[in-house]
């Protein structure tokens, strides 16, 4: 699923020729390039701005700090994946649970193009818990997407409880996504096919569990994790 | 490194099942020795039956590659009675079906396009589960295609499945892991090969082109331009699987024609191409009228020439009467070894010859009728041979690894022939004279 993301195009084009890009996108492109070239993120905004010939004001007009910028990058990958998929006929005609799955596959497929950058980027995050608490903006982007979907809902027969439970379900989807992100960083399989297998097992299970409990898939996921992590 | 035991006991699910079998078999032995010590009566028969039952019970709950391995190894050793083996043949790999977005993703990763960009129609619901993926129906310009999509990460899961079945298989044959190694390697190599669709496309194309002259046979054309490592696009073949086909009561002529086509196809592969479609699972053949469609070239066994020259002469009547020659051939195919005692050598040679005379019956006459009685006789003989100490509890691994897939293939063909009640032309083929000539030339 080679969905072209704007950022990716930019990174490959030299900064000065990208005058048609917004300042925000130029900064992002330069940030990715800087990180890849130096093998690590810039230490200070001052250093970064000097390197790309910007003023600090220009940077701070767009971003509060590097962390903010990083989250915006993740959010962009998500939004661009959705935008590209929305052009696809199968995406338009499928149910919302499958839409989410398609976006998840597309998102990780796109991350591949900038894996070096993201490995650097996620290097500081040691556990899914760190990641989960780490990206408030990215989380907002994903949650906004999830909320407009009509996903399978849990009906416990008590309207007052259904709402918080289903809110919990959306949160669980985000948490699972972070879990996959964490897995992807450590994934060494060819073409990251194990990440695909994980997405499949994890999210189809999540959706099934939202509706009913599906023991078969729990076991299937369990087997996969057990064999993979040599528990 | 973890030991076999810790792998078996730490992997939940399937592994627990296998450990359970081990315990049960142990329990059966305990019962047997307890009974023997009290009554002095030897009820080994019952013991074997109980063991076979317990092995079957737990293996039947295994899925995927573990099942395949267990099935193959037990077929080879005639360990499981016919009823069980038949049930085995029906079991299929059953991973949960892939979600449509995953199917789309795998297709796009392999080909660079979404299925609906390539085909006019693409059914996201799968037509059937293949052993390591699933098959989807597609249509373009009014023509139907079968699209095989592989489950991501399947190669790794095969490896972990095999690790789990190893301890049980070792226990079943009473051999150590080291001694079983050559067989496991053969099976693992073949299973991993099945995950390589590039290879399947190449071999499928080669074998179908080479065998196209065989009467009434049909192969799908493969389309490399739409295929990739995990996606294989071929013609969709119409037709029924053997069981359903027999239910519509085809005429005896039709059944014989079909059987003849299958027989000729396998004879040609084995003796001319020296590479066979080694997965004669009923699901891999589609019948329509007198026509036989052959699909799935994932499992191809290439027969090495030196093995061929030692194994197949044993099927010739002339050879079966030449004790010295037999001795040499059995050494070549690792049934007997130079350091075996004369008694063991004799016992094994007799057992092997007995089985071979039976199995080679179709080759020794011009025509042969495959009946269930014939199949039952093979089983009964197999079970009797299994009683021989050196077969049941071998002191060393016996039998060439190459025989594994060839035996399995013949096993599959013979049972299909019996299901068809086939009366066909089987014997006096060119290869028999050719082999005999080359053997006589060597011994002169």
Question: Top keywords for this entry?
Answer:
heterodimer; A: 231 residues; mainly alpha; 2 domains; 13 helices; 0% strand; globular; disordered N terminus; B: 444 residues; alpha+beta; Transferase(Phosphotransferase), domain 1; 3 domains; five-stranded antiparallel sheet; three-stranded mixed sheet; 21 helices; 12 strands
Shape of chain A: globular
Strand-residue proportion of chain A: under 5%
Low-pLDDT parts of chain B are 1-45, 78-94
SSE string of chain A, helices as H and strands as E: HHHHHHHHHHHHH
CATH class of the largest domain in chain B: Mainly Alpha
**How would a textbook summarize the main sheet of chain A?**
none
Chart the SSEs and their pairings.
The complex is a heterodimer of chains A (231) and B (444).
Chain A: H1 6-12, H2 23-38, H3 45-52, H4 56-62, H5 66-86, H6 89-92, H7 96-113, H8 115-122, H9 128-134, H10 136-147, H11 159-186, H12 193-211, H13 215-229
Chain B: H1 4-10, H2 14-39, H3 44-59, H4 64-76, H5 82-90, H6 100-111, H7 115-118, E1 121-122, E2 128-129, E3 133-140, E4 143-150, H8 154-173, H9 177-194, H10 197-211, E5 217-218, E6 231-235, H11 242-247, H12 252-273, E7 275-277, E8 285-288, E9 291-294, E10 300-302, H13 305-311, H14 317-320, H15 323-332, H16 342-359, H17 361-364, E11 367-369, H18 372-386, H19 389-392, H20 402-420, E12 423-425, H21 430-443
Parallel strand pairs in B: 5-9
Antiparallel strand pairs in B: 1-3, 2-3, 3-4, 4-6, 7-10, 8-9, 11-12
């Amino acid at each position: 699923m080679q969905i072209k993301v704007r950022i990716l195009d930019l990174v490959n084009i030299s900064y000065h020729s990208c005058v048609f890009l917004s300042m925000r996108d130029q900064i992002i492109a330069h940030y990715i390039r800087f990180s890849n070239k130096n093998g690590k993120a810039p230490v200070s905004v001052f250093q970064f701005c000097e390197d790309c010939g910007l003023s600090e004001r220009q940077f701070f007009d767009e971003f509060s700090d590097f962390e903010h910028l990083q989250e915006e990058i993740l959010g962009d990958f998500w939004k661009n994946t959705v935008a590209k998929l929305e052009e696809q006929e199968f995406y338009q005609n499928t149910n919302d649970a499958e839409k989410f799955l398609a976006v998840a596959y597309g998102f990780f497929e796109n991350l591949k193009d900038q894996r070096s950058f993201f490995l650097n980027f996620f290097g500081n995050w040691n556990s899914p818990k760190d990641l989960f608490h780490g990206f408030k903006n990215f989380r907002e982007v994903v949650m906004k997407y999830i909320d407009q979907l009509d996903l399978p809902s849990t009906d416990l027969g008590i309207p007052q409880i259904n709402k918080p439970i289903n809110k919990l379900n959306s949160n669980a989807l985000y948490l699972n996504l972070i879990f996959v992100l964490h897995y992807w960083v450590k994934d060494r399989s060819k073409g990251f096919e194990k990440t695909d297998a994980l997405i499949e097992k994890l999210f189809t299970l999540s959706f099934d569990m939202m509706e009913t409990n599906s023991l078969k898939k729990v076991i299937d996921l369990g087997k996969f994790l057990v064999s993979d992590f040599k528990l | 490194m973890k030991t076999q035991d810790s792998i078996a006991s730490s992997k939940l699910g399937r592994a627990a099942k296998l450990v359970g079998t081990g315990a049960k078999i142990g329990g059966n032995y305990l019962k047997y020795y307890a009974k023997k010590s009290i009554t002095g009566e030897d009820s080994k028969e019952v013991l074997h039956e109980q063991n076979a039952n317990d092995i079957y019970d737990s293996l039947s709950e295994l899925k995927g590659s573990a099942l395949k391995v267990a099935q193959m190894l037990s077929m080879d050793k005639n360990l499981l009675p016919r009823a069980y083996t038949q049930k085995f043949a029906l079991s299929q790999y059953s991973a949960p079906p892939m979600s449509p977005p995953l199917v789309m993703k795998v297709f796009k990763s392999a080909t660079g396009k979404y299925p609906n960009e390539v085909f006019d129609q693409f059914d996201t619901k799968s037509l059937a589960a293949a052993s390591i993926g699933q098959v989807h129906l597609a249509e373009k310009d009014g023509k139907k295609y079968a699209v095989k999509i592989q489950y991501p990460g399947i190669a790794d899961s095969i490896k972990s499945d095999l690790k789990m079945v190893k301890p049980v298989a070792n226990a079943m044959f009473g051999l150590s892991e080291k001694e079983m190694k050559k067989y496991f390697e053969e099976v693992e190599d073949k299973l991993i090969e099945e995950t390589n669709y590039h290879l399947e496309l190449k071999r499928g194309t080669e074998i179908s082109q080479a065998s196209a002259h065989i009467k009434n046979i049909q192969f799908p054309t493969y389309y490399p331009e739409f295929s990739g490592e995990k996606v294989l696009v071929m013609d969709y073949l119409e037709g029924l699987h053997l069981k359903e086909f027999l239910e519509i009561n085809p005429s005896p002529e039709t059944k014989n024609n079909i059987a003849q086509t299958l027989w000729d196809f396998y004879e040609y592969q084995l003796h001319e191409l020296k590479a066979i479609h080694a997965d004669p699972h009923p699901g891999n053949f589609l019948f329509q009228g007198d026509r036989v469609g052959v699909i799935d070239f994932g499992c191809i066994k290439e027969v090495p020439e030196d093995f061929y020259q030692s194994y197949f002469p044993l099927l010739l009547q002339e050879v079966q009467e030449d004790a010295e020659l037999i001795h040499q051939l059995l050494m070549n195919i690792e049934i007997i070894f130079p350091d075996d005692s004369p008694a063991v050598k004799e016992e094994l040679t007799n057992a092997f010859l007995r089985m071979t005379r039976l199995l080679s019956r179709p080759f020794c006459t011009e025509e042969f009728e495959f009946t269930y009685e014939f199949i039952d006789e093979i089983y009964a003989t197999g079970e009797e041979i299994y009683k021989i100490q050196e077969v049941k509890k071998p002191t060393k691994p016996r039998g060439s690894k190459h025989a594994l897939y060839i035996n399995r293939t013949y096993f599959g063909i013979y049972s299909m022939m019996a299901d068809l009640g086939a009366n066909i032309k089987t014997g006096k083929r060119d290869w028999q004279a050719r082999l005999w000539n080359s053997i006589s030339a060597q011994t002169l």
